[in-house]
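Annotators were shown the component list below and the corresponding predicted structure, then asked to write short factual statements about the assembly.
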Amino acid sequence: MNIGGWIIMSLSVGGMSTLLGWCVYKVLSTPGSSEHLHTQNDIDPHDDDDD
Amino acid sequence: MNQPNGSGESWGTRLGVILAVTGSAVGLGNFLRFPGLAAQFEGGAFMIPYAVAFLILGLPIAWVEWAMGRYGGKYGFNSTPGCYFAICNRSRPAAYMGVLGLLVPVMIYMFYVFIEAWCLGFAWKYLIGDPALLGTATDTDVTTGTYVLDFVGIKENGSLFHNFFGSSLVHLLICFVLNFVLIYRGLNKGIEWFCKWAMPALVLCAVIVLIRVLTLAPNPVNENQNVINGLGYMWNPGGIVMPETLPAEAPEAVSEVAAVATEAVSDATPQKKSLLTTLSDPEIWLAAAGQIFFSLSVGFGVIITYSSYLKKDDDVALSSLTAAAGNGFCEVALGGMILIPAAFVFLGVLDEKTLNSAFQLGFMVLPQVFAQMPGGQFFGFLFFFLLFLAAVTSSLSMLQPAIAFLEEGLDINRKMSVTILGFVTFVGTMFVVYFSENLAALDAIDFWVATFCIYVLATVQVIIFGWVLGVDEGYDELMTGAEIKVHKSFKFIVKYVSPLFLLIIFAVWIFKALPKRIENISHVEGLALGFIGIMLTFFLLLIASATKRWNKLEKGKVSQ
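Structure shown to annotators:
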């Protein structure tokens, strides 16, 4: 493996890992963002309509 | 505006929807197709067009789909035809243009679930230590190669039905039932629940296999075949030069697969090219764009459906970026570090034909690798189990658009929509399974639907977003509730660059691949095209019925 290979592998793997890490951090650190988007009461199962 | 009720379903948590979209994107392509392509185009060089395509094609189209889906969801629509109907000011032709958003995922499911069954079958066989797969069978008539070919029915049409319990049909049945049980349970209790544990499990399996690969000892026959050189084979810009490399001797017991793999190895004479020479080849740009495109699941009609279940002020910009990053991580950091280095250590340099075929790499070459790898039974199980999980999270997403459409378009309940879709996909899958000789039916649907139609659908999507909805309104829609600021250059990219890039890729692809394909249309491919036509007509008729209903709702003729 040559120096170019090491550089590109590090940039690719490191870049994607960093991007994912940053995104996950932003998602989890935003107040309320990982909470329920809807309550269960919002959900209409729709199966009872004609049963 | 009056609107359909939709199914009344929604996501439970933000993390759930991100994992579901990531799960939809992460599939066999991340672990089998990407490494093969990258090695074929001297991995290091490949990453440059790959990064460009990610920024100007993959990510912008993913944002487009998320924004369009949430927009349609505001008006009670959850399917591509419904969302187009809402975006294009209740235009019926627009709804018809969304037919590919139903046809593509449903027809891909028909063959994808078959491949999913192979992954489950291989995982099970590694778990129980099947000697034929491990290359330790004492019966010389049962080699790993013939065993694999029989398992997938590649030798003869209908052969799988002659040996139900010895073929992949049992696993297919399990996969089919699993998918429909999860779909029946609904968005929150089915898809989201499954993705929430399957995605972390998948990553865990991949990390364990990765550690095994990175700690492999050099090949005792040729010490040049070591992990570092394997990584170089994958990542060096310009490829590798190994004048002393000789193919490793394969154990006799795995001779048949070895024959395939050794043929691949022996023809390969890597030649070092400069980075600029490699990048001046248009093929590498096409391959990278195609990989980004298929990997992110854009143009499938899946993301639109998933994001339509969000609320009107839920973030889509960061969620979309997170899902794309998750997919990229699985592809580059996991997929890019496992298959090629492992295959290199045991088999040396592979030829272009093998690198180009996910089937050859995954189901013919890899068993050869695991047969020689210390602890190969355990790691073989883990690898195929992670492929199985990746496949299920993807196949689930292929069913939801049609389920959503049937419910909102025909006003039927979940039981009925699952029954209809179950019947349709069962018929299609049996078509693929029966015509299994050389995987002809699978290959035909893969080409015409999973490649041709996806290009068309993605092009339609960016044009509707950039030119019909309007790039300013589209950008405002994307920024509503956004937790990150998307640069305004997005508008220019989506309006001009992405459509142009897509059209160029599509045109070149048509010029290169289509004439050759049409010249060599086989009997089975003709049947497959007929079947695609029937499915297209079926969905168009359903859309006709659905748009009538939606227009009646608009006029208040149907009480909700």
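Statements collected:
1. DSSP finds one helix and no strands in chain A.
2. Residues 38-45 of chain A have pLDDT under 50 and may be disordered.
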